Design the sequence.
């Protein structure tokens, strides 16, 4: 990719052409491009091509065309103090320009798959810091390059204000990059050969179509297994519930609950017994005939005058859910306040 502007004789000439073609549109980006000579990131034998608007590759070392880098820098909307992550940081050319804008209070990280490329980027960075006349004119956030696979970064790790993904990423991994972005952050990456700017506006993690399909299919299968109706209790529990209806001093209350699972509110119908006349969480069975009571999922018979501790069905259901303990405590807070 490239060839959008004429070749320049030197770095300044190349920047003039990019500015004339409106690839560079802000003073901040222009100063960063002029401060770093693109030719310094080429091997000596290939330096003659450094100021052409063309991509360059030698082994694992790769530089995108100048028009691509200028579009990326403008799309990132960089400001001092922001955190930046470069996925597929390559030679470090882009990360070094970003460091000139975000300044010493920013964060500048780069992840590169190939170790030899990380070593090359570190050499180019050291040369810039020691020998460039532009270094003392800026407050610089020095980039940190590490060897790694960007798809193996933990989603619980640090999130960033700005992310650029220059590495080759398949379509089904697109949402993974978004999880690493802060709310209000900007991600710039090529999608189907088109440079795309994505702004994260919602606090929820972005779900892929595959995840959403899996959730819908599993829910549909559960409904089909229940004959098109919401799932009810198992048969043995249903029989016990039918007998329980005959209790003279008990009424049954239906609770409509919504459980937050996998970023979705899933309706669940939970049933619990509520005594009309007892103040404590106990009940005295006064029926003349014996009946079956389900306690902790086990059926047993009770006789007249026997006192049973009422099972807190809703609390048991919540505690059995695969949720963090802090969320369980939150869901049970008001119920425990009444106990």
Sequence:
């Amino acid at each position: 990719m490239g060839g959008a502007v004429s070749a320049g004789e030197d770095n300044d000439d190349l920047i003039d052409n990019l500015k004339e073609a409106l690839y560079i549109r802000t003073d901040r980006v222009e100063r960063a491009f002029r401060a770093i000579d693109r030719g310094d990131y080429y091997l000596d034998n290939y330096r003659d091509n450094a100021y052409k608007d063309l991509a360059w590759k030698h082994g694992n070392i790769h530089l995108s065309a100048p028009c691509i880098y200028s579009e990326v820098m403008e799309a990132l909307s960089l400001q001092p103090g922001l955190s930046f992550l470069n996925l597929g940081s390559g030679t470090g050319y882009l990360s070094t320009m970003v460091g000139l804008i975000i300044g010493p209070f920013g964060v500048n990280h780069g992840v590169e798959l190939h170790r030899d490329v990380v070593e090359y980027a570190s050499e180019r960075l050291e040369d810039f810091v020691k020998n460039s006349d532009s270094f003392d004119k800026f407050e610089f956030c020095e980039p940190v390059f590490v060897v790694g696979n960007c798809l193996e970064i933990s989603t619980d790790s640090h999130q960033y204000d700005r992310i650029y993904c220059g590495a080759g990423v398949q379509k089904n991994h697109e949402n993974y990059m978004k999880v690493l972005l802060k709310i209000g952050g900007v991600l710039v990456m090529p999608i189907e050969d088109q440079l795309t700017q994505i702004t994260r506006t919602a606090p929820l993690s972005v779900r892929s179509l595959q995840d959403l399909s899996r959730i819908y299919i599993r829910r549909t299968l559960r409904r089909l297994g229940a004959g098109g109706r919401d799932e009810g209790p198992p048969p043995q529990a249903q029989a016990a519930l039918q007998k329980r209806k005959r209790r003279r001093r008990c009424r049954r209350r239906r609770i409509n609950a919504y459980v937050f699972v996998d970023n979705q509110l899933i309706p669940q119908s939970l049933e619990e017994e509520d005594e009309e006349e007892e103040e404590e969480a106990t009940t005295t069975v006064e029926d003349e005939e014996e009946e079956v009571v389900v306690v902790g999922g086990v059926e047993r018979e009770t006789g007249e005058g026997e006192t049973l501790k009422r099972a807190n069905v809703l609390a048991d259901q919540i505690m059995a859910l695969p949720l963090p303990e802090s969320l369980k405590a939150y869901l049970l807070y008001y119920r425990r306040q009444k106990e």
Notes: The chain is about 35% helix and 25% strand.
